[in-house]
Amino acid sequence: MTRTIARWILAAGLGAIGVLHFVQTRGFRVVVPDWATRVSGLDKETIVVASGVVEIGLAAGMVALPRERRRIGWATALFFAAVLPGNVHQWRTGRSTPGLDTDRRRFGRLFLQPLLMAWAVWATSAEGRSQGRR
Fold first, then answer.
1. CB 115 within 8 A of CB 80
2. pTM reported for the whole predicted model
3. For residue 109, what are the CA distances in angstroms to 63, 103, 130?
4. Choosing a second label site near 90 at 20 to 30 A (CA), which of 67, 99, 118, 132?
5. How do the residues of the chain divide into helix, strand and coil, expressed in percent and rounded to 5?
6. How many Cβ atoms from other residues are within 10 Å of residue 120's Cβ?
7. Which of 27-31, 75-79, 122-126 is most confident?
8. Residue 44: what are its φ and ψ, rounded to 5°?
9. Buried b / exposed e across 17-53, counting CB within 10 Å, b at 16+?
10. Per-residue pLDDT at 131
């Protein structure tokens, strides 16, 4: 039951942030490093929108595809790892976004990523099963 609640909270958060990628695109563009546009060939706006689509898709899959939850959990953890360079970029450049308007908050955000990764894997693993029986 605890993992189910944690999964729903994570899915709700991912979905909400994903929607914000469409509503407040400008605020998310400052997080995209310049090298990401060169590597991907996409502009910052497209990267922001695409990451919002991914977040919404992961959130939906987390709750709607019970047989795929474990894979979706790992995909979510990998997504959190993939966006970490953007968080490092934001901290190093000192660019503010809502809620991340000080160097201390931006630096603290870096430590949130590994926690989110662990949360995604834990919340989507089978409840009540031991490690050895998976």
1. no
2. 0.88
3. 26, 10, 31
4. 118
5. 80, 0, 20
6. 26
7. 75-79
8. -60, -40
9. ebebbeeeeebbebbbbeeeeeeeeeebeebbbebbe
10. 46
Instruction: For Cα atoms 118, 47, 39, give the angle at the middle one, nearest 5 degrees.
Output: 95
**pLDDT reported for residue 129:** 54
Over the stretch 70-97, which tens digit does the pLDDT of each residue have?
999 999 999 999 999 999 999 999 998 8
Amino acid at 95: R
Copy the structure tokens of residue 125: 């693993």
Query: Quick one: which of 101, 15, 102, 105 has its CA closest to 64?
Result: 15
- Cβ-contact 86, 33 below 8 angstroms: yes
Q: Which two three-digit tokens encode residue 8?
A: 């729903």
User: Which residue, chain included where needed, has tokens 């953007």?
Assistant: 86
**Which residues face 100 on adjacent strands?**
97
Sole residue written with tokens 């939850």: 69
Looking at the predicted structure, is the pLDDT value of residue 16 above 50? yes
